[in-house]
Amino acid sequence: MSNEAKVFEWFIEPRNSQTNEAIADYLNLTALRVDLVPGLEDDKGKKHDCFRVPYSVINVFIKKTHSFIKFRIWNRDKNFGPIKAFTLLGKKPSKKAREARKALKKLGK
Question: How many alpha carbons fall within 13 Å on the CB side of residue 58?
């Protein structure tokens, strides 16, 4: 097994024009060097237009709680291959989990 740490590239995909503006404004204010990467292919073959950013930028947007900010986070190993959705943070519970929680609440009443 290798002792090398994994190196990931991080991407943020705005889901609406307001989020796109918010990301662009933040990047201009911080003067971070980022790339707009159109047509990135995910592991299912779908294309996405994303900003390649350091993880610190993703952290900033995860902490924003404005209702209009909608985005997806992607990453990939090193700098090649398809991108993969990063859903660890703020992951929506599955339908089964939501139904189980609802059933438990009914039992508790």
Answer: 21
- Tell me what the mean pLDDT of segment 27-33 comes to: 86
| Alpha-carbon span 46 to 62, nearest angstrom | 24
DSSP H helical ranges for the chain: 17-30, 55-63, 95-108
What is the pTM for the complete model shown?
0.72
* Mean pLDDT value of segment 13-36: 89
Please name the amino acid found at residue 93: P
For the chain, percent of residues with pLDDT exceeding 70: 88
Which has the closest alpha carbon to 86: 71, 96, 98? 71
CA-CA distance, 82 to 92, in Å (whole number)? 23
CA gap 66, 49 in Å, rounded: 22
Phi/psi of residue 74, nearest 5 degrees:
-130, 155
